[in-house]
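Posting for a labmate who doesn't have an account.
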Amino acid sequence: MTKIATLFFTFFICSNLISQEKSDPKTQPTNFLSKSYYSINFGGIFYPFSNQNLIDGYTTETFSRNYFSGRMLLGYKIQPNLAVQFGTMRPAEWFKYDNVNNIGYDRSVWINAWSLSIKKNISLNKKLSVYGETGIANVTRVGFSINEKVIYSDTRFASLLYGFGLNYKLNDKFRLNLNGTFLPKSVKENQPSISQASVGFEYHIQKLPIETVGKYERNGYFFPENTIQIGYGTSKIGFGVNRFFGMSLKVGNFESFGIPVFWVGEVKAENSFSVTYQRLAFRTEKIFSLDWGISVTAINTEATREKVLAFSIFPTIRFYLMRRKDFDMYTNYSLIGPTLLTKDNLDNLNTGPKITYQDMMGLGIFFGKKRKYNAELRIMHYSNGNIFTQNAGVAVPIQFTFGKTF
């Protein structure tokens, strides 16, 4: 269910971006985009795992819990106060059973939920509204084994998801959220209930007045219509950046130093080579743009030197951090780009189905006369987002890319 929903949402978004006529001003969002929003939320997640979830004969006296979690959503407004939402909810770190049976075994339980839901807002006044949400979630749990004996089994199942909260409208674009999200326990799947309390925001894309569109088009800020890039990366520089943004970098006494906004992966790329094309779909006055792109990436794995190709289509959001006379600096971020891998098992690890997803994050500049050239540092990741229990993930370390705009 979730895999189909992911493909549908991503291709629906990309097809709407691609179908925008070349003559249309890129500062005016399409009808589809003008009814869309994204939501980013952080807070605490709670699931009462206990020894009762383990098979007989295995227990621990202590557990390691990190309650910090996030939920990210893409929404489309069917009506002004009725929307369909697609997204994911997961903890920053996995729940851990410490020192199982007092013989030194520490084991983690991975939990992840992708959801498709309907959200209904009820206005209390011009600024404040309450909402209710209901839908279905694809819950994936990766348990653990000891000496090849399954102590807590893997599972994947459909679950009811429901929630409620408050929205406070700051302006036409931004709303603040206070959320409660719940998934009931499943006796059949030996899965405790999941609940999350979070705060965050929604950003709603808006149609602009004609005079504003013209003003933005003539303001002189550079946004490339088309960009083609060639990139190369090697594991000789390490995976420190990937681990930092995956909050898994070991620094001193910290086992999980960093920022939880990206992922690493068990399969490590020894080297990689990419060809990427991106096209502008929408931009604001100065800071933000939305592109769609396609890419081909060749990877040699680190452990067994396997060769694999990744064919991807993806959306990219770009934020311009600095605009100067000689260059424009930006950061970009791309999620859930549908990808075909030519192999589904790498380095003797099960990476799940060949149809998977590409994630990408980078920092770059446009430079030269008329900003004809581009240089970028990026990290990449391939996985199915724990939609399936088999999800080793592929980590691609920093790629150095050079590009040409036209």
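Reply:
Got it, the structure tokens are right above this. The mean pLDDT is 90.
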